[in-house]
Structures are given as structure tokens and as C-alpha cells.
Amino acid sequence: KAFKTGKLAVVLPLLFSVLELAKSAANDRDLSHRVMCALTTAADKTVGGTEESSAVTEDVELLLALNFSTSSANWTAMFDTSGEEVKPVNPNDFVPAGPVRDEWTKAWPLWWKAAKKAAAEHIGTAKHANYKAITNEENKAEAHKAIELQARPAAKLKAKYTELAQGGTKGTANLINVYLKAALYGQGANDVNNLVLTALAALTNWGAACTKQKRGIAIAADFLCACNNNEDNSKQCNTGYTPHNWGTALTLATYWPALKASCINHGPQAPSASEIESAISSFEAALATKDNGGTLVATLGAPSGNACDGTAAGLCVDYTQYYGGADGTKGKAMPWMQNLKKAAKAITARQTALAASHAIAAQIEALRTEADSVYLQAAAGKLYVPSEGGSNERAKPQPSINREAECNEAGTSEDKCKELKAKDCVFNDKAKKCELKKEVKAKLEKAETKWNGKDGKTNSKGSKHIKRK
Asked: May I ask which residue range the UniProt record assigns to the signal sequence (predicted)?
């Protein structure tokens, strides 16, 4: 096989790859079958919608419910959770018209949902197994101050988590699946029945169906053209596939499933960027090129002279428009190849996004765990510490928790974390999150910090689980 410089680059690793692939190939048609099988297997897969964990949603909803249950009586009285619908439907009765009302109106359903969860699960009452009533008002006020610092960043992180768990903006399941379908069946086609509209000129006979102008549009079409000749039904491609004598019309619904079934699938169940890249490499290494009077002819299979004519002796697929042509010309971009590459890129982006979503899930879980600790301390009456003089001074609950939460608000952004350097925040490269310096956290946990000159009471409007900007 002659490869023309500038037309088909074959690097050493890929050459070894195709040689390995060809070891047990009886002929060029057998090799083309193996290569097309690899491409089909890589493309004939789908990605599920989202990998969002219900545990993350539960953590955030619990945080908001704990935050609500520790709010002032004035605040909790605004919400009617006796029914299954938001009531009142908006905060118009509690705040005058203006930006504040607009903000409250937007957040109102979320606040009501937190109130409903707290009521339905008896959070803050003797009926709940873990979150008993906080009977001391000072402890309750302290708990609310601390838990709000957990709930606020958790709510923000949840929105980002949801996006990343869906693959981010560049790795959604829909995007990947569209690219894979387009590679397999042609742009806009969802199954093999649409091939005649995209990548097969006709089904009547090989010559009408497999024109070289239509090659490179869909893997399925090229595969059918590579393994069904127009003279007989000899098993030229694979002993596991009995081809159609394509001198008469071929039935896609019969022969495409049979051709796919002749492939041995050892690849991963889910779409894989590495599997796609390997299949592409094997395909390009298997292409044969031949000079034809100054024009490079590129084929997969065994041509008759320089032509793919569909005969038993000339059964091949012509890719000259993409990999050959006159000297000095550049081939066109092949449609199914481009769609496969786009799918691989999107799959890689999805994997990166999912890894980031796992890091955020861990952050949210940590915030929920910290809120648990605060609530349980308050319920046990251990959060509020009056001074010896009886002046009702309060110890700051879990001082490291509040400081840690400030750092956590930067999320996975290293730049935002740097802006919090003055607050002793540092970016953890391994965990991909902003956190309080370990030495600072250790000192705070040991310190007996007290707050002076604060009465611990909320204002008449109460407090919220999402801070207004």
C-alpha cells in the first residue's frame, strides 16, 4: 500500500495498530469489515440524561429546612404549609412593592418548599428522631446564624452541581447522542431507515446506492457498501455475515441488523472518547492509496484496478474526495468522521464536568454535616453560653464552621478563592475547592470565642435561607 505524503499521514503507533488488526484478516474485505465494525461499535451507543445524585438534592433540601425551622416565629408564620400548593402564593402581604418584593417573589416557592419539608417531617419537634425542638431561644438564634451560613452557599452550589451533573454546557447527553447518530446514520437521521435520504442514493442496486459522492456521510451506509456486492452473496467480509446480492434492491431492516450482529463488541458499554479515537486511527491506517495518473485514489477494501464498482472483484468504498485527489489538493472534511470527533470532544467535556460535580457534591455534603452538628448542639442546649456575670454573652458556635463556609462560597473557582485570601482561604488543588487554611481552622476549633454586646434576636421580618444581595 502506497501512502502519499501530505494526503494520508500514518504514524508508527497507528501502523502497529492496523497490523495487529489485520493479523487474522483473510483479505482486504475482512480487514474493512473489522475496521467498520470498530467504527460502528463506537458510534452505536447513547448517553443517559443526567448523573445527578438524589442525595445531593436531599442534602440541600434538608439544609434549607433546618434553616427555616430555626428562623424566628415572625418569619415562619408567613408560610401556610397545610396544603400541597404554595400559600400564600407570593409575599405581597408582607413586603411593599419594589426590588425587595421582586426578589422575595422569585425565592418564595423555594422558601415555602423548605417550610413544607420542615412541617411534613416534624423537624424541630419532639416527633423527629434526630432534629428535636430547640427549646432555648438563644440557642435557636445561634443555630440559625450558623446554619444560614451553610444553607446559603449550598443553595448556590446546587445550581452549579445540577449543570455539571448533566455534563456541563459542552457535554450534555443530547449533544453527544446527536453527534453519534449523525456519524452512524447521517445528519438528521435517527435510524437506518433514513439512510436512503442521507447517505445512500438508492437501494435498487450497488451501483446506484454506493456512489462515491455519497460515501463518508454515514458509517452504516459505507459499511453496507463495503460488504454487499452486486454479483453474488459470497461471504467476502466475514463468515458471520451472509450478504445480499445487491443486483436487486436491498432491505435495510434485514441486512443492517445482520451486519451489525457480525461484529464482535469488546468495547465499553457507554460511549468512549478513547474508543472513538482508536476506531478512527484503525480506519485511517487501513485505507489503501494508489496513484492514478497524478490523482491519488483512496479506498477501503479491494478495488478492481482503481475503481470500487461493487463487483465481487471490486468490492470497496471510495474515499478519494477526503483522502486523495490531484497532487497539491486538500481533501474535504468527511462528515461521519467530523461527527465522531465532535462526539469524542463532547464526551471528554462531559467526563470533566462530572468529575467537578462530584467535588461539589462533597462540598454540599460537608455543609450539611456541619449544619447537623450545629443543630444537635443547639437542641442539646450547648450552643449558647451565658457569661458568669449573667450578661447573656454567647459563644460563637463552631467558629471554624462559619469561617469555612465563607471560603466554600468561592466554590470550585480558584480565582474567587484568591480574593478571599485575607480571610485565610486557600484553594485545595486536589479537592478542587476553596477551604479554610488547616492551621487556622485548628486554632479556631480550640479557641473559646465569645460574642459580646449582641442580644441574639432576629428582627421583625425574621431571616431567610437565601441571603438577598
From this structure: 1-24
Give the rounded distance of the alpha carbon of 429 from its chain centre. Answer: 21
Q: DSSP 3-state assignment of 175?
A: helix
Q: Return d(Cα 281, Cα 277) in angstroms, integer.
A: 6
pTM of the model: 0.74
How far apart, in whole angstroms, are the C-alpha atoms of residue 307 and residue 30? 18
Structural contact between residues 183 and 339, judged by C-beta atoms closer than 8 angstroms: yes
Residues in the chain: 469
Helix (H, G, I), strand (E, B) or coil at 366: helix
Predicted confidence band of residue 329 (pLDDT cuts 50, 70, 90): low
Take residue 416 and report the three cell numbers written for it.
474567587
State residue 166's pLDDT score: 96
End-to-end Cα, the chain, rounded Å: 69
Using CB atoms within 10 Å of the CB of residue 469, give its burial: 0 to 12 exposed, 13 to 18 middle, 19+ buried. Answer: exposed
Q: What is the DSSP string of 406-442?
A: HHHTTTT-HHHHHTTGGGTEEEETTTTEEEE-HHHHH
DSSP3 helix / strand / coil % (the chain, rounded to 5): 50, 5, 45
Spacing of C-alpha 12 from chain mean position = 34
Burial 295-304, CB ≥16 within 10 A → b, else e: ebbbbbbbbe
3-state secondary structure of 329: coil
Q: State how far the Cα of 85 lies from the Cα of 46, in Å rounded to an integer.
A: 37
